[in-house]
Amino acid sequence: MKVIYFRHEKEVIYFCEMLYRIQGEINIQWKRDEHWGNELRIQDHKVTLDTVISCLVNVLMFYRLNKMIKQITRENYFYTDKDEIERICLLTNWVVTEKHYQDHLFREHTSLEKYLFSTLRQNVEDAFPIHFDSLVTFCTQPLQKKLKEAVGYGIDEMKREEEHQSFVQSIRDFIKRRETKSNELHIVQGENFSFYKATGEQYSYLELKTLMYNEPLYILGLDANEMNLSPIITLLPKKIYIYGEHPAEAKTSTIINIFQERVTFLPKESFPFHSHVN
Question: What one-character DSSP code corresponds to residue 203?
Fold first, then answer.
């Protein structure tokens, strides 16, 4: 028989839900304990220790992780604004699931879930009963170190987002003050955008560079060799048609964010000048 104690009732319920998803039909007893809160007895011998640990990891991630992240944000990074703390928490949750950050934060464990499983498993070994609150407290120190680093990355991501939004707004303000120069511009996605006139003729690199030379793009901080956003600002059409398969692609998303209602995204096969596209 495996016995687990939980201080909080909602955590017992969530644990049982996770166990049922993994195991199917289960034989358990749940009663209140005056010293330890909630006592859960698992009477099914088919439920392994590893299954128990997996369920405890899910409880920790669902009920404890965001509280830890917010506490670190307040106490280690000194944020007090509620909305900023919520945003950092959301971005930190993204950080711990993004492969680039996972490889750095968790190394051989590759993910937060696997790291937590390994940490809890080492501290539990084959010992029962398990006191969930004590287990989390005992494992908090190494986890806190990982989360502090993850929160730092989350804050970096927030600052990058803020800088990007400020950049986007500066371009919106710039184009508001300028008259449109053409009725429509057709763009085909690729490593770099390809630009086409309403006639279907493709703008050449030299033609675009010549037009851009006469625009004060330096005001926006755009690199002289930037050839995706700068041509659109220079040509400033009333309507922009983008053709491709990936509306969420970074360059495309930026164009949609800046030019908003001017932009229409269409599948690549809708491109009206087929003879010009490989």
Answer: P
pLDDT in tens, 197-232: 999 999 999 999 999 998 889 889 888 789 999 999
What's the pTM value of the predicted model, to 2 decimals?
Answer: 0.78
pLDDT, tens digit, for every residue of 229-263? 999 999 999 999 999 999 999 999 999 999 999 99
- 138 confidence band (pLDDT: 50, 70, 90): confident
For the chain, what percentages of helix, strand and coil (3-state, to nearest 5) are there?
60, 15, 25
Alpha carbon distance 234, 240 (integer Å) = 13
How far, CA to CA in Å, does 255 sit from each of 137, 157, 171, 251, 269?
Answer: 47, 20, 10, 6, 20
Q: Give me the sheet containing 194-196, strands edge to edge.
A: 194-196, 182-188, 237-244, 263-267
CB 276 within 8 A of CB 196: yes
Question: Strand pairing of 237-244 and 182-188?
Answer: parallel
What's the start-to-end Cα distance of the chain, in Å? Answer: 67
Beta strand 2-6 with 130-131 is parallel
Alpha-carbon torsion angle 127, 133, 137, 140, nearest 10: 90
Instruction: Give the C-alpha separation, 179 to 159, whole Å.
Output: 32
Using CA atoms, how far apart are residues 200 and 62, in angstroms rounded to an integer?
54
DSSP H helices in 24-111? 49-59, 65-75, 82-95, 99-106
CA dihedral of residues 128, 131, 132, 133 (deg, nearest 10): -160
